[in-house]
């Protein structure tokens, strides 16, 4: 990736990390008008950055989060002693004569910080496999797939525009957003030879369609009573589940009112 593309991904990641805090903080300081202003500004900035990545840098299907979090346990570098021993030609493993089991030799045991419980061959294979997956180029998108991805990226702006036109209690914003999400997924479903990250992203988008059950006005008219009843039954009749479901019942109304939690 080029340096400008990396900067765009970094800024996009920062926006996704602070959007909920910005919405809640602005609502606390400047009220509802300030809250909706910051929501529009953040969604507009995110859409512009993502469209630049899609149309100018040909980034393909964009994942969320834009920059994958680093798994520090799996990305532990080799200990300097390990590097020195491997360069000097010392055997790092011992093969049992009767069992043929491969174990690490005691002379080459790494420090506690970089120790792992697999054989060196397994570690090298997993690291090389992860490196290949991370370095796979994005799948080229045709005209249809580019339109589908553009629909998905601009859906938040169209939803906000429809909210401003018809209000939060209207079904039209909810239906418009659902049609755009389903249309985008349908157009992208024909794309073949996706890499692992892109397949995971499409699965994530499909699962997120369940959020429409928790989005107003569907939640207010149909889902709220049924969901709270189910959580209450689980808390009353399933031992131990109440420790999770009762706080969830208290938290759900507040979560449902925060835009970036259920629409962003």
Automatic annotation (TrEMBL):
InterPro entries: Pex16. Its main location: membrane. Residues 68-140 are annotated as: Disordered. It holds the Pfam family Pex16. It comes from the Eukaryota. GO terms for biological process: peroxisome organization. Residues 105-116 have a biased composition (Polar residues). Keywords: Peroxisome, Peroxisome biogenesis. GO terms for cellular component: peroxisomal membrane. Residues 122-133 have a biased composition (Basic and acidic residues). It is found in: Peroxisome membrane. Belongs to the peroxin-16 family. This is Peroxisomal membrane protein PEX16. It comes from Aegotheles bennettii. The gene is Pex16.
